[in-house]
């Protein structure tokens, strides 16, 4: 009896005193076009702001402009313009959902794998230049 009482007590006290769960925020990436040689080396492709990237709405728009797959960069700016991120922020988890357009006449080999490359940076009030935090 005492064991059941203690289990109920710990369950209730843990539910009351535990911190709130992590929240999820959905972001939609912007398809930026980068046609320079040596992609993704020095220029950050910003989805909004004064130095916006050259954008396309969908992949079909890339065909008449002769934009190759390696020239398309999916850019996301976190947090959104109206939000601020706390210095106490502990971790970020990203789930990438790919919507792939399939066409019957595409010549794709059976062993084709997508190879994503991810690059991140942060800008703190103490720095004048962004600091790179992760590559590939």
From TrEMBL:
GO terms for MF: Wnt-protein binding
Annotated signal peptide: 1-24
Domain of life: Eukaryota
Record-level GO BP terms: intracellular protein transport; Wnt protein secretion; Wnt signaling pathway
Cellular component terms per the entry's GO annotation: endomembrane system; organelle membrane
Domain Wntless GOLD: 30-110
Keywords: Signal
Protein name in the entry: Wntless GOLD domain-containing protein
Organism: Muntiacus muntjak (Barking deer)
């Amino acid at each position: 009896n005492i064991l059941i009482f203690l289990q109920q007590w710990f369950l209730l006290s843990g539910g009351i005193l535990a911190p709130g769960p992590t929240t999820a925020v959905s972001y939609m990436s912007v398809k930026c076009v980068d046609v320079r040689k040596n992609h993704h080396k020095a220029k950050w492709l910003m989805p909004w702001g004064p130095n916006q990237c050259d954008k396309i709405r969908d992949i079909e728009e890339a065909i008449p402009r002769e934009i190759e797959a390696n020239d398309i960069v999916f850019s996301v700016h976190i947090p959104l313009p109206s939000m601020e991120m706390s210095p106490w922020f502990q971790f970020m988890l990203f789930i990438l959902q790919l919507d792939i357009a399939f066409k019957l006449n595409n010549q794709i080999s059976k062993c084709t794998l997508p190879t994503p490359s991810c690059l991140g940076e942060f800008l703190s009030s103490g720095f004048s230049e962004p600091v790179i935090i992760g590559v590939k």
